[in-house]
Amino acid sequence: MSIRKILCIGAGHVGGPTMAVIADMCPEINVVVVDINPDRLTQWNSGTLPVYEPGLDEVVSRCLGRNLFFEPARPEVIADADMVFVSVNTPTKEYGEGAGMAADLQYWEKSARFIKPHLKDGAIIVEKSTVPVRTAEAISRILHDNRQGRRFPVLSNPEFLAEGAAIRDLMEPDRVLIGCEETEAGRAAAEALAAVYRHWVPPERIVLSSVWSSELAKLTANAFLAQRISSINAISALCDATYADVTEISRAIGTDHRIGSHFLEAGVGFGGSCFRKDILNLSYICQQQGLPEVAAYWKSVVEMNDHQITRFTRNIIAHQFDTVAGKKLAVFGFAFKPGTNDTRDSPAIYVCKKLLEERAHLAITDPRALENAAESLRGLGGEIAIEPDPYRAAEGAHAIVLLTHWQEFRELDYQRIYERMERPASFFDGRNWIDAKLLYELGFNVYRVGRAPLVHY
Ligand SMILES: NC(=O)c1ccc[n+]([C@@H]2O[C@H](COP(=O)([O-])OP(=O)(O)OC[C@H]3O[C@@H](n4cnc5c(N)ncnc54)[C@H](O)[C@@H]3O)[C@@H](O)[C@H]2O)c1
Question: What is the predicted pLDDT for the residue at 376?
């Protein structure tokens, strides 16, 4: 089956960029992206996209209105589609059975029920959202309509993009994973999707598997990545206690080809919309399958992350003479990582919350994420200033707390910043990012993660 018309449900961080790249790479395919949030659609159609990703503006501007359309879902658009990607959010469930652990699949199921009456026979459904293993089976059962004899192959095609590098990852993926049912229809559907990707992805990077393996591979990938961060952060705690240097350890072990150097930077902890929720979901699935030891193992990755955030925040308070009440602290960076405006589950939320509870006055600055930062902190109370200019954010502050390693923060004039701060001026570098020696020579007391502090006495 040759794919001419694609529909994507969900114009979020995954749906928007992924469909933009498909439209860009496959000019003969018409791609329509729908969403229940009309503001999102308006933003995609405006000059100010809802998602910041390097290179995304250029890709969207090449295809928007040509073969890429963001619009409300209409029955005719659904009926027209040869292939439907479902890229809706699958957050952690906040109610009932599995609350705080399981994935909330209500958006997925609602999407399936919404498209079902309009789908044309044989339309291929592609699971793009990250979902628990065996979700495709449930979706198939919802979609299949024995009375009318219509069948829709369901594929798993998890997205491995990293926010901040989404366009690069979509253009040059390490692999594209397609999980299909071991039936003639399943294999034909997988081949149709593979043909879409072959427009720009080398065939050897398109990997086929069973649907269940594909679903579980995505959860496993995120669990392994997060586990590396928690592992090095655990070692950073020991470094702080012993004055070994975690960056030296990372270098030493990262050169071992069996270990590799990625995801070995100690810091304030991981964030983002995926790691926590996917690991909790994995742990929940293990628990449900009668594997409590395996569940506890994966859950400890999240617990170590929480511990690291708490440890970092306590360290700030301890080095502010055990009180931050009434003190201005400048928070440099709120996005969960550089290159994105996404603040979902950012460590900054937890750090700021704790500092506000201790009655600190916060001035938050970030090159891209201030709007989302304000949203993430809404309702917390306390003194919060959202300040686009880092120099003004630091003016009169007792300390700078760096939480996102934006390149912009390396390029600031710290002499100028230091002169306008209270004394002693402290710098808490939650990402081991800034030249600590330089800051120390300027007069700052510098506190890092898993590295000896540089302090003036
Ligand atoms: N963000 C990432 O880096 C990333 C990476 C890989 C996989 N994923 C997975 O991809 C999925 C989507 O993540 P995201 O970050 O794009 O989420 P998102 O919240 O940015 O976007 C989801 C969109 O789906 C829309 N939506 C929800 N229900 C709908 C419905 N019934 N009809 C139409 N639209 C609907 C929402 O309004 C929202 O705009 C999740 O399962 C996530 O785990 C995310």
Answer: 97
Q: What is the per-residue pLDDT across 332-366, written as a single tens digit (0 to 9) for each?
A: 999 999 999 999 999 999 999 999 999 999 999 99
Pocket of ligand 1 (CB under 6 A): 9-15, 34-37, 40, 87-90, 107, 110-111, 114, 129-130, 159, 161, 163, 273-274
Give the architecture (CATH level 2) of 219-305.
Orthogonal Bundle (1.10)
Cα 44 to middle of ligand 1, angstroms:
15
Lowest mean pLDDT among 102-106, 131-135, 149-153, 308-312: 149-153
For residue 150, report the distance from its CA to the centre of ligand 1, in Å.
27
Q: Is 286 a catalytic residue?
A: no
pTM exceeding 0.85: yes
Residue 125 to residue 87: CA distance in whole angstroms: 11
Average pLDDT over residues 219-237: 98
Tens-place pLDDT, residues 10-65: 999 999 999 999 999 999 999 999 999 999 999 999 989 999 999 999 999 999 99
Could you state, in order of their start, the residue ranges of all structural domains in the chain? 5-201, 219-305
Work out the angle at residue 322's Cα, subtended by the Cα atoms of residues 267 and 397, and round it to the nearest 5 degrees: 70
3-state class of 313 per DSSP? helix
Q: What CATH number belongs to 5-201?
A: 3.40.50.720
**Residue 158 CA, closest ligand 1 atom number:** 7
CA dist 232 and 293 (Å) reads 22
127 C-alpha to ligand 1 centroid (Å):
11
CA distance 440 to 320: 17
188 CB neighbour count, 10 Å cutoff = 14
Q: Which of 135, 273, 375 to mutate to test the pocket of ligand 1 (most atoms within 8 A of CB)?
A: 273
